[in-house]
Records
---
Amino acid sequence: MSDNRTAMLDKIADLAAEQAKAVDAGGKYIARHKERGKLTARERIELLVDEGSAFLELMPLAGWGSDFAVGASIVTGIGVVEGVECMIVANDPTVKGGALNPWSVKKSFRAAEIAERNGLPTVNLTESGGADLPTQKEIFIPGGRGFRDLTRSSARKVPTVSVVFGNSTAGGAYVPGMSDYVIMVKEQAKVFLAGPPLVKMATGEETDDESLGGAEMHSRVSGSSDFLAADEYDAIRLARRVVARLNWRKAGDTPLPTYADPDLDPEDLLDLIPQDLKEPFDPREAILRIVDGVSTLRQAQDGAGSTTGGGNEVAFDEFKPLYGSALCVGWARLHGHPIGILANARGVLMSEEAQKAAQFIQLANQKDTPLLFLHNTTGYMVGKDYEQGGIIKHGAQMINAVSNSQVPHLTVIMGASYGAGNYGMNGRAYDPRFLFTWPSAKSSVMGPAQLAGVLEIVARESAEKKGQVFDADGFKAIKEMVETQIEEQSLPYVLSGMVYDDGVIDPRDTRTVLGICLSVIHNQRVEGAMNFGVFRL
């Protein structure tokens, strides 16, 4: 077993342990919840999605490193319900009664953004006590966006379904109130703007949960519920029937009906990433383990008696392979979908790579092809010769192309993603449809050693200007502290906890994850940009 594989397997084991914290976030309250005959959030999702289909959980580590439970008290992801890809958002009532904290809000906003940009119906599995009151100042003002998103989705004719399993109070009452279809569970759902104690305090009226906001009342009297479910299983059955009757059709292109597995074994991705990210690796080795292969497809075609065009197929058609070799770009298919790929072959981006990328991105937009960015970059090259050669304007050309490209972008951070290289390679700030990281990923303004070194140079120059002697030995401890701090802040769990990605994934799952994302993207037509901003030449 290679050292790289051993190190990656250790990181994957750590990832599994961190993700388990989200599953077990409710602690002792999970058992109490089940004793009441209720399903957990993930059990509800498992029953909702089609049997045997995949559920792509998104942002499972949201809130990692904060004062709140990992997962931020909601489970979000994409699942297939009656053949329809849906965004599913489920409150976890075992974590503080499903109360929403600041990270829950960020996570739900990102889920709504994914649903909007990809045209996905949304199914809310609702059971929440509302906002986490001690942090209400961080929730109340931005939180109204959730209601806006629901109504705008309906206006776009993209349906929203709400299944209420328990409490849905105060602002949470507007989730079913603004959904297109509402299902409430008998003797469990409680939907009201104010509970009995607050009503008594505000108006002096004596009332009870059921007459104020119970499922029977909303189904028979107020009309806020469209379906009264006998129990949770019945509620999920009804939700599946609602989705089945949406008459939902994808507007985008369909993939090839037949495609091949990668020609190289995805298992070998574990050997690929060096432990020291300053060591370069050939991204083609990753690409050929992610994209559709040709050998098994050719065998299948030959077996069926069809022609293969003389056996000239290749899995990855590289573009400008002899120019700007630190960036590898080209065309491939993934799960039958056409895709353009930009992958860092060496960490640094120079003028040639930037210009090559700008041209390639324009070509992808010209033929309406989604783009995949595979990161391992330390940023754009610096130095007198490079500045005089126009690295700023060439880097700007690449960022211009990325910024104004209209085809869907997918991003995977495999290794380093530092400085403006993160921007040029379509980091989070550039709105990729989906962004995932490998456990080996690191991202910050620059590498820890470089940043600490810059601080030392600045401190030394400052001392010299003041006529003081620079204490190199004394600064050593500060330098080490800065390096440690930046190293910790650049790790994938920290970034994922801040919802700067859509999840940390096992490298071996990359093809499957990207295949789901490409399928989701094609719920809508893929159309490239008609024009770009001014390119400084």
---
Amino acid sequence: MPDQPIGALPTGTGALALETWNLTKRFGSFTAMDRVNMRVEPGSVHALLGENGAGKSTLVKCVAGFQRAEEGAILLDGREQAIANPIVARSLGIGMVYQHFTLAPGMTVAENLLLAGGQTPAVIDWCAQRAELQAFLATTPFRLDLDARPSELAAGEKQKLELLKQLYLRPRLLILDEPTSVLTPQEADEVLGHVRTFARTGQCSVIIITHKFREVMAYADAVTVLRRGQAVHHGRVADTGPQALAQAMMGDAANASPPAASAAATADTDNPPGEVALQVEGLQALGDRGTLALHGLDLSVRRGEVLGVAGVSGNGQRELVEALVGQRPRLAGKVQVLGRDYTATRAQNRELRVRSLPEEPLRNACVGDLSVAENMALRDFDQPPLSTGGVLRFATWRSRAREWIAGYGVKTQGEGAPIRSLSGGNVQRAVLARELAGEINVLIAANPVFGLDFAAVAEIHARILGVRERGGAVLLISEDLDELLELADRIVVMSEGRIVHETPSAIAERHVLGAYMGGGHDHTPHQEAA
């Protein structure tokens, strides 16, 4: 450990070198980060891998000033720094984009960008500021309406705004926590390509937390793997590969729990998809700003089939899901399940066996203050055996919840814990247990593995394919094209609220899908033959 004075770095614009030395963080008796050493070279992109709970977020939060380590040190350009809070981190040139949004929902995009600087003048010259912001946006691969509000933006657009907030401040060390979880591969390539170029100009160093090996191999210079709070692997990306990284992340579990096989690989050619289970015709719905978000959309999903819906975030996917599951009024069109009109009432969901895995399950599929057992009972609390003669049988709720907690590996203090106290992956497992119970005719899943780790992704993908293999129809809406290519039998592309392309996944080509996702088409749907 070099003997360096502690103090603020002089103001500069060049990329920072970061080093952590024996960094240790405890929460009570639990050691979240155990003597972690890591070095990030100036002007490099450094990937940080590990399962949920491995210590990745704890490490970067210590660097960004949101948490204080009990032991060890953080060095910037060789000098030890006491980063007491995010304000100190910001003054040192450290910026961070979090996995969970930190936007002011009632303010415009322009106001959020200015607010990020923390030194907003009492009187704002909006003419000059808008010109400056437009000039800044022109240097990035993003296009956002400066007058839009985050409450009106899709998840992918919110993620772009979070990154823009940090880029606008010209950081010297930029930390990205799952920055592409809600972006398509094309958007991700734009984002990461821009960030890598920014780093290689020597203006900034970058730490990226990701679960996508493709992104690590394509954009990172070096990688550190954490497992159970310890750094177990360091190295140059050029000297490693996805299999070695997975082994480092998972340890022995990497061999015990292989990822789910692709839909194409598991397809039974003797049992092709059956009757149409979900039929959508001429569906129209308004967006949050009162304009048409779905323009007469048509699609169908058969029994024993996964239909993947691809598209750049903000092209009507969220409105489609909400219109199907009853969270958004339908302006026009018809939705049928097994030939019967479907309006997403609770009785229809039970009778027709329609289930859903919505995006952001804690917000869309749970009541945060209710217990895990109570949330697991939301679908059938008034049905036998959970209710008899109008009397709710709470002991049965709790008993079943304990079985599901064990069966789905939900990590919780118990079935009585508030569901908001669980991690994102465990909330998703709890919702999965409820939604996948019993027979299913139609499953509507929207970004079902958003922000989850390597092991959770493989498990959830396997369970989704299990629905398909038992004869259910799965509508999978995802902004991760890799996920769709792995799981779907067919893929359709949504753009500007319309289906513009359809192809069997077995012959799908990434660049063709990307062209349609990016809007390089007319509004006439194009279909590729098998």
---
Amino acid sequence: MIGIDLGTTNCTLAFKGENGIEQFQILQQITADMEGEKPTLPSFYCFPLEGEPFLGWYARERGAELPDRVIASAKSWLCHDMIDRRAPILPLSDPKMSPIEVCSALLKHLRTVFPGEESALVTVPASFDPSARALVQEAAEAAGFGEVILLEEPLAAFYAWLNRHEGDWREILHVGDTILVVDIGGGTTDFSLISVEEKDGNLHLERQAVGDHLLLGGDNIDLTLAYLAQNKLGREHPGLVHAVRKAKEVLLGENPPETFDLTLEGQGSRLIGGSETITLEREEVENLLVDGFFPIVELDETVQKETRSGIAQLGLPYARDPRITAQLARFLRESGSPLPTAVLFNGGTCKAFSFQKRLATLLSKWSGEEVKILPNPDYDFAVSRGAVYYGLTRQGEGIRVRAGTSHSYYIGIEGSAPAIPGVAAKIKPICVVPMGMEEGTELMLSDEKFSLLLEETALFRFFSKASEQGELKELHPIETLLQANGEGGNTVLVKLTAKVTELGMLELWCVAEDGRKWKLEFDIRREEASQAALV
């Protein structure tokens, strides 16, 4: 059993070993003429001026010198629905590979670590839409993996925390607690809410809400700090962004020094004089980054929206408002859940103690009581470790975070009757997901067969009900064309099977007697979140 964190900035790999869940050291190119093992595989792919392309650690280092010949943040391109994500568009300066090819190359490299493994648990941002999730699945299959289970990253981070606290989590968390998972990585920010409830005398964990996909993270912070260093230097320097990362970690950590000397290699004629040194002061860095990305805002703060230019360069759809606290306020307002009483920090950006302190202070201000910070997080490896732990819960081991549906879901079946002018055909709702059906489970419906339309664009109508006595509410329909995938007419008799995936997707499978099957996907979480916001 292996867990893969396909990170925007770094990938990690964990597995179930003899001593529990372990982290694997990944063999990769470290310098031009040396290979070595590192606990992370940087998500970079470089095309050098000469020789074969390479990925990982050395690709990231070379990327500082050859920014136009390196691909970074390929995973974020998978959720860019305004481009053809299978087209060779990266790097933008000289396109050679598609986003899905880059992700597949990273996964294929990780698979060489365990050449005998054919299945994996791969994590994705909680907010990835169905098409982006399907592309990750496709990339994993192209890398040689057979069975692939996708799991959301903040939930994986919480599973890792549960693994570390199996013996005492019930003493740290109590009935009525709501845990906010704040996962800020190199390229993205993810929020999730998990509640602690009591059922049948036992503590019960349930995932309540996930946030929107935000391309906002450590990369934005590093770039901001690089601009500060550039102003002090008085000119541009290609290695600034890479150099300031260390300064950020030191000046924003616990017990930071008052200053940090940033040493840069000289350029051009300055090579004669060797390196150059810039001094960054802790106070100016805190004022710039903490107040810039984590300002004190009210809970009703709105996210700023800028008018976009009609013509723009091709690029990632970055969040326009860099204030992470404003993005968090919007998420909490729209979640329909109680305000958090505890917070778990994850991701490399959250190593900065100053960021944690500001967020905890703001959460306490919003709720009116002190919000506790969950102890012993694992900022770098929690996601891959948590993926393995989740795999163990599927086998009956460990503590499962439940995520049952809050509504019943139905598909509309058109009745068979003679046409009557001015009278629409009757639609019979068939329940495909009963209320409370847990994510990761599958339900075979009755033996009744239905006629499925193929080779023509058709409309599939979905409904939901909030309680047994509640009224049916029609949801967004799916309009699509299903291929016949074989001989026969444009209709086929099928039985229905429903599955709610670990990512909150309803997969409705239409299965014919000859083995052919078709899948309809519906995003349950997005519907439940929109309904909660309306209430």
---
Amino acid sequence: MELLTVKDLSFTYPKTDAPALENISFSLKQGGFYLLCGYTGCGKTTLLRLLKPELAPFGALSGSIRYAPEFGDPPAPHEIGMVTQDPNEQIVTDKVWHELAFGLENMGLEQETIRVRTGETASYFGLAEKFGASTEALSGGEKQLLSLAAAVITAPKLLLLDEPTSQLDPITAMNFLDTLKRVNRDFGITVFLAEHRLEEVFSLADTVLAMDNGRLIACDTPSKVCEQLKDSRLFMGFPSAARLWKALDAPAPCPVNVREGKALLQNSVKSKTGDGSLSQPAKVDGSLPPPALSAKGLWFRYTKDGPDVLKDLSLTLRHGEIFSILGANGVGKTTLLQTLSGVRRPYHGKVRLFDKNITDYKRGALYRNGLSLLPQDPKTVFIKDTVRQDLVEILRAGGMKKEEAAEKAAAAADTYGVAPLLDRNPLDLSGGERQKCAIVKLLLTEPRVILLDEPTKGLDAYSKFRLAALLRQLAGEGRAVLCVTHDIEFAALISDACALLFDGVLLAAGEPHAFFTGNTFYTTAAARMASGLVPGAIFVDEIAAAVRT
């Protein structure tokens, strides 16, 4: 039974010429699990918000959205749940139990009913021990799980999710998606999920909808969408198993998860001789570049009697090096970046920039001397009404004349692909568009040491590839890059070295092949497929090359 039908839907925002959506048509069936994917800024968020009337953006709308008769007319807020990519923007109360009860109270339910429903919901989602906790004290994964629980507790007929795993570490993201699939299976709630991180979610979906520039370009089963779009740029972000299928020119059906990809690989190497192993990258002889940023014996805690977040932590970031740090939500990665950038001060240990203690840089000299930090929340980067004004402002702050700053800002926006966004308000952009603009603003300061906190959040695969190429270019110029990320595939692609932050210290720091093949959970999907078959491989093209050899 069709729960919702969209026909010839087009939408254009005010003061813009190009439509955000153009002639979109599809239907959602009761109890289905639907995945929506597409490039950054292609209209995914706009489409989701149009499906929930009270969140629909203002603009010119044509076409129709028809809801099944069991919905109200219009649908009541509790009938369509919504989970966004940033739980901090969605959570509205101070306690876990109150957040769960909030929607039920707005529905006018009796207190006894609310007590029972909040109790059983907390138990179902594993939040019983956090029932009385402050929402501020929750980890990022717990906050996102609470947002999901608060949406499900009102028994919606349709659940919309806009990149809910974008701020979650790989293990927490997998657990969140498993919970989401369980909600879909156990309660028959129709799920419509927009995501850029497709590796784990592709095989969960019954149907995949792919968008490009406001248009729907595919709508079918996951395997068939892979087959239809194998020559599209969008295919770059599809699961590793699908990309291996294409690289090996294997017959249909296309595999969409590690298990299916490993089966394809086993069949491909069955007739080959030798172990198919890859040699490890050769070490380059000669002296190492000098340190650009170093830390020795860092200890940090937020309160005098609180637990230590950093424990005798040391690291060295060299000129021309890209160093990536992975780890779970709440383990202290952002705290480390803030400590290295002088935002927070350790109670013991030293940080040195260009062989000078960062405490010796006074009145902003630290940032004028070549260090820049991209924060986890890119909204905090912007202070003006338009992106153009923000880019010009950062150049003017460095002493550049107004006309020259305007020209350089426009040229940089064109180079980095954000020129169409220059006259938009940063707060009106999608998460990925805002992230791109924040990176451009950071790079306009021409930093020699670049600290990045989740730089790929909200970005599609092609945008990540372009960012990776840009960072490699900057490293080639001698810049030093320290990247904190949950994006394992991106870290493997860009890094000279990787490490895992756990219990306040860095573990297993090393070259990406050694690091990722030594891990079980914090590793690439390609490495999991290759395990035992093509030892040492962490990328799809490495597996394909070994099979073809």
